[in-house]
Design brief:
Elements (H helix, E strand, L loop, with lengths): L7 E3 L1 H4 L6 H12 L4 E4 H9 L13 E4 L6 H10 L6 H13 L3 E3 L14 E3 L3
Parallel strand pairs: 1-2, 1-4, 2-3, 4-5
Helix pairs in contact: 3-5, 4-5
């Protein structure tokens, strides 16, 4: 993880590991302590919560911003879903949109999910 990144985007795959993964908890603490944005796309949060691995309330500190999938950004997210020439889940496209809009890196356990999208992204693979 780049310590100089102004903010960070946490995707669904990382959120599912947040309870047990010290690296994810450290990222959250580091960015929160430095008053740097931590962005969680709402679609990623829903998917992570549906897995049962985390509850939304666990990601409710003031340092975390949950971004909505709104009517205004839906066309851009849909474009990203269609741009890869393969099936791209909505939470991946929403996360990619937020990363492109902010310039923040995406922290993920599945960097391959972001390949082939019509946007340049900084994707950080979570160490295993």
């Amino acid at each position: 993880m780049r310590r100089d990144a102004p903010g960070v985007i946490l995707d669904a795959s990382v959120l599912r590991t947040a309870r047990a993964n010290i690296y994810v908890r450290t990222i959250i603490r580091f960015y929160a302590h430095a008053n740097r944005p931590i962005v969680v796309p709402s679609t990623a949060l829903v998917l992570a919560c549906a897995s049962g691995d985390i509850e939304a309330a666990e990601l409710d500190p003031p340092e975390i911003t949950v971004t909505a999938l709104t009517q205004a950004i839906a066309p851009a997210v849909a474009h990203l879903m269609a741009s890869a020439g393969r099936r791209v889940p909505i939470e991946v496209a929403h996360t990619a949109y937020e990363a492109a809009a902010t310039g923040y890196p995406i922290v993920t356990t599945d960097a391959d999910a972001y390949t082939g999208l019509a946007v340049e992204l900084n994707v950080e693979q979570l160490p295993t």
